[in-house]
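Sorry to interrupt, but I need a hand with the structure work. Could you write out one complete protein record for me, on any chain you like? Just paste the record in under my message, thanks.

. . .
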Amino acid sequence: MSLALVVRENKKLIVEKLDIPKYGSKDLLIKVTHFAQNPTDWKHVHFDLAKPGSIGGCDFAGEVVEIGKEAIGNYRKGERVAGCVHGCLDPKFGIRGSFSEYVVQEASLVFHYPSTISPKAAATLPLASITAALGLFRKLALPLPPTTCRTSVLVWGGSTSVGQYAIQLAKAAGCFVVTTASLARHSYLKELGSDTCFDYKDSNVVSQIKQVTNGNLAYAIDCVSEKRSIQQVCATLTGANPQVATVLPGLSTEIPSHIKEHSLLMYTIFGRKMNVFGQDFEAQPQDKAFAEKLYQLLSDVLLPQGLVKPNKVTKMPGGLNGVEEGFKKMMDNKVAAEKIVYTMAETTKQ
């Protein structure tokens, strides 16, 4: 038996005992040691998108328990790995989110991380890094790192989890990285690789960005993706063939017709047809292939060479029992430039 945080009627979250999940021939069965919290987790519960019986959570770090006969990657039992799963799916699909002691994921979508990185830090990597990478390299078609492309890229909302990975990945690709964030975050974001930072609250921020990019900016990723942010981002894109990647849907009406929009949905990396936020999405095998390549690159190059570093961690106590408090903290905007992470071993069955 294993513990999991199950969504029940009236948005209740209950720690329950469940059978250990079954795994397929290409899968790994992983015992979760740490799991991170993302905005999508609380939004699925709060907005009634998670059906009763579903299990939330996406990011995890853990240890390999069982290995499918056709699993790639030469994994061994007991190895430390990280990855993400599709949390809050309809329970009829039998896929558990990371708010569970055991998860199953295809081996190609799991990755090793160096011994210099702690499991709690590794848990911050999978979802946000692949979201940033999908935007920069799959959608905006910038070259994969490490390379030197010298293209200017705007990362709006650089202190967000996705923003921090976007800065590092763009820098590793040799881009000139322009970032917005509150003044208190500028020093840290420059440590991550931002060439210049601007205060998003400054009334002159658009003209400042235009000036530093000589009016030629054509690539941006909006890691906030709200009405005001996308309007400001689009105003900076005065270069040829401008493109913007957004992390939330529903902004198309705010984007001028001459700017190409790429709406990101990281769940496409799982390579299956799905219904998310009440909409049907076809399988995207190209996104899955890209994620496999990116996670391999993280494992082999970007993490060992220090080109990408995990988010800073805010540790929440209580394991699965602490998730509701973590949700409240995020909903009240009390999480900034850090990622909430829980330790599974602190969970108790109440």
Remarks:
- Residues 128-265 form a domain with the Rossmann fold fold (CATH 3.40.50.720).
- The chain has a mean pLDDT of 96.
- The longest helix spans residues 285-302.
